[in-house]
Amino acid sequence: MRLVLAAALTLATALPAAAADGQALFNARCKRCHTITGANTPGAPSLKGVAGRKIAGAPGFAYSAGLKGKGGTWTDASLDAYLANPSEFAAGTRMFARVAQPAARAAIIDYLKTLNQERPCAACP
Ligand code: HEC
What we know:
The chain is mostly helical. It has six helices and no strands. The radius of gyration is 14 Å and the shape is globular. Heme C (HEC) binds next to helix 3 and helix 4.
């Protein structure tokens, strides 16, 4: 595991340290459902540009009533609360993935924020 993480981090050297950790965590724990390309999958909304975006705001994704009813935009604080315990943040949400460790949540959120910038596609995981 340590070796796999080290390899993932080496590939991510273009990003600041915390965001690079976040990218490795994202690839391990989020990528099987979410893309970062702007295209939703049948199972989950795209997370490209999610930081600062309207909650339940990816065009074309059929969100749960629970998340849709939340209102507001994604901030560091609301992303942290959602990732810590999705159904406590939005009762009835269809996302169940939780990130228990605060440092891991912070790294993932740092990484999500880098997805707001246009990057050359060679840098896309
Ligand atoms: C098993 C599939 C799955 C996994 C794994 C998963 N998610 Fe999700 N995620 C979803 C679904 C489904 C939704 C939409 C929930 C709803 O409509 O209530 C969602 C919604 C979200 C949203 C809100 C997006 C928006 O447009 O408002 C964020 C942020 C998010 N996920 C982050 C993550 C992160 C970060 C991880 C990894 C730690 C992760 N998700 C792992 C399925 C998943």
